[in-house]
Automatic annotation (TrEMBL):
The lineage of its organism: Eukaryota, Metazoa, Chordata, Craniata, Vertebrata. It is found in: Cell junction, Desmosome; Cell membrane; Cytoplasm. GO terms for biological process: apoptotic process; cell-cell adhesion. PANTHER family: P53 APOPTOSIS EFFECTOR RELATED TO PMP-22, P53-INDUCED PROTEIN RELATED. This is p53 apoptosis effector related to PMP-22.
Length: 196
């Protein structure tokens, strides 16, 4: 018997908690300078969602170019940022849905649908960035898409998982609210006759 799953009253805050985790990972992705980095020493290139920086092997100072000068840079940043803003809205709606008992299941599927929209926007931004970056920005040395870019994908994966659960959760409304009496099954042969 499963004691605590997504369909139990005590665990109702698990989905909003996961959305909060996705928001934290999204903030790291938006603010992080590790979307693209040099793979090994000398570290001569690094990039964020907003700019690309290079330096000479003996130069300690970074020379940065804004990616907002490129149409694809604005598109990647805008799509990821729009997805992030909708994610924050979904988080607020989820907290409201699980706090107010009357409203809880009236719009839970709507939150799930919005989360699929979030995932679509974030995936578009995460795909545009590496494809166009490698085409338009001259790369120096061996480079890799790094930790901040990974946080962007991790946030997207969490959002997709939460979207499925939000869409399916109303199917278990009675279990979550405790409206169904538990069914007990006895396997002892001595007690089996009176169960029929």
């Amino acid at each position: 018997m499963v004691v605590c799953s997504l369909a139990c009253w005590r665990c109702r805050w698990l989905l909003p908690l996961l959305l909060g985790l996705a928001i934290i990972m999204g903030i790291i992705a938006l603010a992080g300078r590790g979307w693209l980095e040099s793979e090994s020493e000398p570290y001569v290139q690094q990039a964020s969602l907003w700019e690309s920086c290079t330096r000479g092997e003996d130069d300690p100072n970074w020379s940065c170019v804004s990616l907002m000068d490129y149409g694809w840079g604005r598109a990647a940043a805008a799509t990821y940022l729009v997805g992030f803003v909708i994610l924050v809205i979904c988080f607020a709606l989820a907290v409201i849905a699980f706090s107010i008992e009357i409203l809880r299941f009236n719009f839970v599927r709507g939150i799930g649908g919005l989360l699929f929209v979030v995932a679509a926007f974030q995936i578009i931004g995460l795909v545009i960035y590496p494809v166009k970056f490698t085409e338009d920005i001259p790369l120096t040395g061996d480079n890799m898409f790094s930790w901040a870019y990974g946080f962007g994908w991790a946030s997207t994966v969490v959002v997709i998982g939460c979207a499925f659960f939000f869409c399916c959760l109303p199917n278990w409304e009675d279990e979550v609210l405790g409206n169904i009496k538990p069914t007990y099954y006895y396997s002892s042969p001595e007690r089996a006759p009176y169960l029929n």
